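Postdoc handover notes: sequence design on the structure in folder B. Input tokens:
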């Protein structure tokens, strides 16, 4: 889609770059969902979803795989690298993208919690834990060997492929 037609634009995609998408409207009701189904879907303590009208969402590269996680909803993901990408109720006019799959997740802060019955009690402790950067946690030998094969956090030409 042309950036001239849509002044608002967010992009995102999977870790390997096989699947890309764009949003042409700002997400609303961005939220953390703590329900057990979302925990399993993203492999983490909660999912963070950014709903937009389906009319403001488009796949721009590739076709995701889909899983019917319940009788009411589907979750789209990259079949190649496994990145969870969306959650959508079958009868809703919205689709929620996973915040981590956005190119600029920091631009889309959450405003509420859902599924709090599944919220893990130790989440309140996170800010008190010791922390270090990714490079700090690697040994010197690992840092020398490290090559990132992940798709960059921006759109790339259709023939883009990860470095070998």
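Designed sequence:
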């Amino acid at each position: 889609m042309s950036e001239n037609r849509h002044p608002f634009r967010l992009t995102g995609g999977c870790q390997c770059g096989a699947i890309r998408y764009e949003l042409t409207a700002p997400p609303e009701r961005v939220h953390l969902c703590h329900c057990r189904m979302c925990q399993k879907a993203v492999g983490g303590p909660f999912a963070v979803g950014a709903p937009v009208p389906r009319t403001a969402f488009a796949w721009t590269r590739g076709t995701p795989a889909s899983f019917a996680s319940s009788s009411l909803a589907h979750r789209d993901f990259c079949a190649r690298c496994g990145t969870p990408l969306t959650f959508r109720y079958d009868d809703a006019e919205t689709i929620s993208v996973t915040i981590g799959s956005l190119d600029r997740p920091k631009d889309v802060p959450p405003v509420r919690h859902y599924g709090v019955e599944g919220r893990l009690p130790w989440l309140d402790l996170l800010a008190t834990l010791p922390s270090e950067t990714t490079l700090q946690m690697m040994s010197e030998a690992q840092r020398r060997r490290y090559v990132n094969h992940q798709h960059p956090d921006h759109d790339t030409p259709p023939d883009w492929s990860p470095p070998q």
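Context for whoever picks this up: The longest strand covers residues 47-53. Don't rerun without checking with the PI first.
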